[in-house]
Amino acid sequence: MSESNHDPRFVHLSDAHIGHRQYGVKKRRDDMYMSFNTSVYEAVEESEVDFAVFGGDLFHNKNVNARALSDAEEGLSRFEDADVPVVAVRGNHDANLYKEDLNWLEYLHSRGKLILLEADLSGEEAAFEKHDFDDPGTSSGYVDLDGVRVFGLQYLGQRTSDSLSDVADAIEKVNEEEGEPEATILIGHFGVEGHIPGMGGGISFNALEPVEEVVDYLALGHLHKKYSHGNWVFNPGSLEAHDTRQAQWELGYFIVDVEDGEISSEFHESKRRPFFQINFEVDAHDSPDELESAFAEEVEEHLSDLEKVQRKPHFQRSGEKRDPVIDLRLEGLLQFNRSRLDTDSLREIVEEKTGALYVNLNDATESKETASIIQELDGGEDAVRNEQGQIDRGKLESAVFQRLAGQDSQYGEKEEDVADTLSVVKKSVLADENPESVAETIKKRRRDLFDQGGDQE
């Protein structure tokens, strides 16, 4: 156990998602690196932490490319240069739930860039192996740093809840054998229920009770929202927002002090790119020109609110504003044929007026023709709407094709198969497939459905 002549201080951060090229935009990939690297800089240079704990999802993709690995190593090297050990666990984005090969966190552990912790759950009882700085292997179970003992629990998905009692027993066993530390930390990659409305699957407070008996600080990752519970459960959220909803949340990292076994934490917001949402109702506009004119005016009206969103913590370290990501949602009943709705023109209006890095357009409008068809379908609107209440274009197309097929008696009870064939043919035509290939697909499907033989046309 390393010794310190002052009370230990650590930074708790999580969910950097390095390598996430959101929307295919290069600058969004750069944002993931910048928010991570800036947070590391602030923790080291401004807060002067003694060590760091990371709650998982360092990377966004399991197949890490060279650029993402380089970005991660640069941030970790800043910790290394300041002699600040980094202790981490595996998140669901970092590696497969069931191990198949050496993952990138194990690679970083073996090179001394971080200390990867995980519980050994292979036997009848859970166990934690002490970290050996001279022979680290590919992972460890726990590590002692500045009088604080840190344990790690890797991402287990639905198995997490069933494992917590055994994990608590294993922690207690280590502390009994090795002596009680000044404070005990458990890092885990899972969410606690009740902190994000409408999101299920979190761990219940009852399941956490065994852990509470033996842990002073539960350092979580996974949910991209900052929350805490009972002055012992802490989740800092992601370092970058990954959609407009997340952009409304506090996101960042905790600076935590341990004094005489007592925990005190201070939250710091990370510097990240702003998101902004524009909703536009199309109902009142009778022509495309009228719609575009009204749309441009409405975007103008949003600029003052956008200005507020672009303030801190969204500034770059230079103090300059970052161009926003705009979520544009079109809603309502179109008063003209859908083919005349120029969404590219609407995107250009937003980009010109807001300087947006990217405009993510969600077209949730319905045309009069669509509304009429929906009312005539079996099941009405419920048959073609998704869980968010939006028209599912795939379901609508399938329902229309099936209805058309059902009107022809020669198809008997095979209208679903005929509808599927029509959908396949449509996709083939839109993909500019060879007409002869499309015709052959139709012939084969018809033979399979009606057993008419190979010579039928």
Keywords:
single chain; 457 residues; Purple Acid Phosphatase, chain A, domain 2; 12 helices; disordered C terminus; Calcineurin-like_PHP; exonuclease; Mre11_N
Structure summary, number of beta strands: 15
Radius of gyration: 28 Å
Strand order of the largest sheet: 4-3-2-1-11-12
User: What is the CATH superfamily of the largest domain?
Assistant: Metallo-dependent phosphatases
Q: How many alpha or pi helices?
A: 12
Verbal overview:
Residues 9-225 form the Calcineurin-like phosphoesterase domain. This is Metallophosphoesterase. It comes from Haloarcula argentinensis. Keywords: Exonuclease, Hydrolase, Nuclease. Strands 4-3-2-1-11-12 form a six-stranded mixed beta sheet, with helices on one face. A six-stranded mixed beta sheet has the order 5-6-7-8-10-9, with no helix packed on it. The chain is globular and about 80 Å long. It starts with 8 loop residues before the first strand and ends in a 7-residue tail after the last helix. The chain is an alpha/beta fold and 457 residues long. The protein has three domains: 9-269, Metallo-dependent phosphatases (Purple Acid Phosphatase, chain A, domain 2, 4-Layer Sandwich); 274-376; 387-457, no CATH class. The chain is 36% helix and 19% strand. The protein has twelve helices and 15 strands.
